[in-house]
Design a protein that fits this description.
Layout lengths: L1 H13 L6 H55 L1 H4 L6 H27 L1
Length: 114
């Protein structure tokens, strides 16, 4: 779903492809469901479970690439002005981002070597 929504934004914003909203949703969500249908037909229920786990691993590995720039950006007083995070909240945010990184490295290690 996250990929589908990102695809819709990319189609409209970056590529300047204009479509009726219903047609864009039909196209992007229709394309997004093709892998699930194929996996279900080829490997059944176990395959869809494995695909779900794999998709969550991929999403968790992408999370730091969103969280770290976000925390960096909202902690910067020069960019955010009065809306910047306070020092304690910024420290807490960096701790959470670090925890996400540690857990992702552990997940990656367990997936590869476990």
């Amino acid at each position: 779903m996250t990929g589908t929504l990102a695809g819709q934004i990319i189609m409209e914003g970056f590529l300047h492809l204009r479509m009726a909203p219903w047609a864009r949703r039909l196209l992007t969500r229709g394309l997004a469901i093709i892998p699930v249908i194929l996996v279900t037909l080829l490997w059944g229920e176990k395959g869809t479970g494995d695909l779900l786990v794999f998709s969550q691993i991929v999403l968790s590995m992408q999370l730091p690439f969103a969280v770290i720039p976000l925390v960096w950006f909202v902690s910067d007083r020069q960019k955010m002005g009065e809306f910047a995070l306070s020092r304690p909240m910024s420290l807490l945010s960096w701790c959470v981002a670090g925890l996400i990184l540690i857990l992702n490295f552990k997940l990656l290690y367990d997936t590869v070597f476990g």
